[in-house]
């Protein structure tokens, strides 16, 4: 389906690239660089899809999105932003945007979003509600920190579920912040004025889980001196977070399933049913399908919980966020009364090289420890090595290897920069990419025996993009297979 597209960004390169890509698909495209230009073209051009940046020279491009949608209910708005925060993603969704894409964005993903918007804009009646102002919490009040591509995907999923009551299953290793995701969904959702109640299945004796969840009557068991409301009743009207759901005993799973189906709880030792209205967010670090195969987890409960899965990346999979998180934890430590410390660049690079088996929780503990242990105001890499020898990259082959590669690459780039004649100084990024990328592509294809699907998966790009790059560099996978045999 072809349409009229308005692209608004103060970066001329983005307007040119996006505009040309859309024109090649048959769309009619106009571009603007400011909110004022956008307003003028909205009146005269009347686009089907508006693609707009947030931070524009004359204001915030997101502020008047509800007004735009109210005045033209059929228009679909796609938000681009380099801010890359959870608040931006949620605000874009709540204000009626069809899609939110963090910068740098994938051009193929953007063109697919345009196609989807054109196909569904007339059917998406919910966009007409965008003129309602949402009381959004400030970003500083939100518990999640991170600007990596992996976290952007988490933010986008959260943004899509905060306005409904769908059941969420948060998946991830211990320490990745599963409870923080649950808290963010609750704080940003329509139940935020109601209770947020959390229960950790792994921290409660098996024989007490049902009493904790559903409550108990006086005399139901030894020590039950009064009637006590369970977590479901405590969370009534709000959100119940079931942490480590994979550790729940089978008998308790059966009763939980019954409550989820009926919306009613019966206390231990009681017979009356109590109606409850809660949003369920569950979390686990276990492989639930494997537990199902071992008859340790109910398959029907799994499907009841896994309505919207949110997989959380391990910290080693979002290394770009590590310096940001480390400084965030130092600031938090200072706000809690510990000495204020700053992080030197070499220390931030060293932290980013470690594997962090304990994930974000481990990093937080390390930063709190450094705030106490170091006398100086600035934490350096040498201080980290001396104070935390057990975390030294030398004790981790993968991290040490990553540091050696980084050091070698840094020296290689410096050597090329020192000889200006070797590189065009006006195209440094392109020239460097042309030197590095073909080697990366060839070695990845060799490692996968020329299998382009596996190679694309390893590289984190789609197969069409890989094929395009192979053609660009003149790399033939069949030849590679022959060379490797």
Commentary on this structure:
This protein is 47% helix and 13% strand. Helix 4 (86-94) packs parallel to helix 6 (149-161) and helix 18 crosses helix 19 (452-459). The chain is an alpha/beta fold and 485 residues long. A 5-stranded parallel sheet has the order 2-1-3-6-7, with helices on both faces. Strands 9-10-13-8-14 form a 5-stranded parallel sheet. Helix 1 (12-24) links the parallel strand 1 and strand 2 (28-32). Residues 122-141, 394-400, 419-424 and 479-485 have low confidence and may be disordered. It is built from 21 helices and 16 strands. The chain has 4 domains: 4-141, Rossmann fold (3-Layer(aba) Sandwich); 164-311, P-loop containing nucleotide triphosphate hydrolases (Rossmann fold); 318-397, Orthogonal Bundle (Helicase, Ruva Protein, domain 3); 424-484, Homeodomain-like (Arc Repressor Mutant, subunit A), CATH 1.10.10.60.
Please identify the structural class as seen in this structure.
alpha/beta
Q: What's the architecture of the largest domain, going by CATH?
A: 3-Layer(aba) Sandwich
CATH superfamily of the largest domain: P-loop containing nucleotide triphosphate hydrolases
Please estimate the helix content.
40-55%
Domain Response regulatory: 4-118
Pfam families: AAA_lid_14 (PF25601), HTH_8 (PF02954), Response_reg (PF00072), Sigma54_activat (PF00158)
Protein name: DNA-binding transcriptional regulator NtrC
InterPro entries: AAA+_ATPase, AAA_lid_NorR, CheY-like_superfamily, Homeodomain-like_sf, HTH_Fis, P-loop_NTPase, Sig_transdc_resp-reg_receiver, Sigma_54_int
């Amino acid at each position: 389906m072809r349409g009229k597209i308005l692209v608004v960004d103060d970066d001329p390169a983005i307007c040119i690239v996006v505009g040309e890509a859309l024109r090649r698909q048959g769309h009619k495209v106009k571009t603007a660089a400011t909110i004022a230009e956008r307003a003028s073209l909205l009146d005269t051009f009347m686009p089907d899809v508006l693609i707009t940046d947030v931070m524009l020279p004359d204001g915030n491009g997101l502020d008047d999105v509800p007004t735009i949608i109210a005045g033209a209910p059929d228009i679909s708005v796609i938000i681009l932003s380099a801010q890359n925060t959870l608040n931006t993603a949620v605000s874009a969704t709540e204000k009626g945007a069809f899609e939110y894409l963090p910068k740098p964005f994938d051009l193929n993903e953007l063109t697919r979003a345009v196609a989807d918007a054109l196909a569904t804009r007339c059917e998406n009646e919910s966009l007409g509600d965008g003129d309602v102002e949402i009381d959004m919490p400030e970003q500083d009040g939100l518990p999640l920190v991170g600007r990596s591509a992996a976290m952007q995907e988490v933010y986008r999923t959260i943004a899509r579920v905060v306005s409904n009551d769908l059941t969420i299953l948060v998946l991830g290793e211990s320490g990745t912040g599963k409870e923080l995701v649950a808290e963010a969904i609750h704080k940003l959702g329509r139940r935020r004025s109601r209770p947020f109640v959390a229960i950790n299945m792994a921290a409660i004796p098996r024989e007490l889980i049902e009493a904790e969840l559903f409550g108990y009557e006086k005399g139901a068991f030894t020590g039950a001196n009064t009637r006590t409301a369970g977590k479901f009743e405590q969370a009534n009207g709000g959100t119940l977070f079931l942490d480590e759901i994979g550790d729940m005993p089978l008998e308790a799973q059966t009763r939980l399933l019954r409550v989820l189906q009926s919306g009613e709880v019966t206390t231990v030792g009681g017979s009356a049913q109590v109606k409850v209205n809660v949003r369920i967010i569950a979390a686990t670090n276990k492989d639930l399908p494997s537990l199902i195969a071992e008859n340790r987890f109910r398959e029907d409960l799994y499907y009841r919980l896994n309505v919207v899965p949110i997989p959380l990346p391990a910290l080693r999979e979002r290394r770009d966020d590590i310096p940001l998180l480390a400084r965030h934890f130092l600031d938090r430590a200072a706000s809690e009364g510990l000495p204020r410390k700053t992080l030197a660049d070499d220390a931030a690079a060293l932290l980013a090289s470690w594997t962090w088996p304990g994930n974000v929780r481990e990093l937080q503990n390390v930063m709190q420890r450094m705030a106490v242990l170091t006398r100086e105001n600035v934490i350096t890499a040498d201080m980290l090595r001396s104070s935390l020898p057990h975390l030294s990259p030398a004790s981790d082959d993968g991290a040490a290897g990553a540091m050696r590669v980084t050091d070698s690459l840094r020296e290689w780039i410096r050597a090329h920069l020192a000889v200006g004649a070797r590189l065009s100084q006006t195209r440094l990024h392109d020239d460097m990419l042309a030197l590095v990328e073909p080697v990366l592509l060839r070695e990845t294809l060799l490692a996968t025996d020329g299998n382009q699907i596996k190679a694309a998966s390893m590289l984190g790009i789609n197969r069409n993009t890989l094929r395009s790059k192979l053609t660009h560099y003149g790399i033939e996978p069949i030849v590679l297979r022959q060379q490797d045999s």
